[in-house]
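Entry type: protein chain
Record version: 2
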Amino acid sequence: MFNTDYTFKGKHANIVTQLTSEIDSETKFKLFNRNIDVLIIAPIVGLLYGVTDTRDDSGQVVVENVKKINYQQMSSESYILNYNYTLVMLLHDKNKVSVEERLNRAFKYAKGTPEREECDKVFESYVLGGINKLKEKLLDGAVQVDDYINNIFNFISEYNERYNQDVKEEDIIDMCTNH
């Protein structure tokens, strides 16, 4: 899945554009530097929040709302992308599907087989759902840089509350102010 160009289309391309655009020209502040950074984090966000979506293949997809990640970037980040893919395949439907089948999804199915194509669709659905969730958590309601920073803080705090009770709010504030 990661040995070719990857393209976001339609509404998801528009969201990726917002996530990777300069928010403030003076500080050059961006939420994500590259489209591939969104591709790396989105499936994990989608999985953690249990949200999926389908590709926007509506007739409204035009050149302006297509965002591409070239093969070279895909190749250079293939280790983390493949790791995320494996993670999603192991955890998707973990309460409904046997461990053996989840291991097959993660490691066995060869490219070009119907089983692998179905797994790729599942992974991409988490990517697209994660993009929607990133929009909701990071972009919605933000107008000024401070709004975006508050959204980031709230998103990290929510993650901390849900998944990591060992990190304290003071540690997050300290990380944000010292770097």
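Comment: Residues 6-140 form one domain.
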